[in-house]
Amino acid sequence: xxxxxxxxxxxxxxxxxxxxxxxxxxxxxxxxxxxxxxxxxxxxxxxxxxxxxxxxxxxxxxxxxxxxxxxxxxxxxxxxxxxxxxxxxxxxxxxxxxxxxxxxxxxxxxxxxxxxxxxx
Length: 120
Description:
By secondary structure, this protein is mainly beta. 10% of the residues lie in helices and 43% in strands.
């Protein structure tokens, strides 16, 4: 199997909250958590099913660095977890702001391996 990812994924669980365009700036949103994350996207586990192509806003609480980031993204794929009332969502991040990218880089690379010299 060929890995088509441009960015390294880091397996970790961070609490998240998903909102759609209907409740983008207000309301409770849907609780979720990350399974893995990179600077380009994340695999997120949640109890709510979203259609592929849905625009979402996700707040992720980065536990290791005690920071929260809010990211706009799009649901790229969806898979129901067998025997559970949960869904795996592949989310591609869009229109990231520089402070958000820096927070992700500090979180993902700053602890163990250092920030890479070239970022794709």
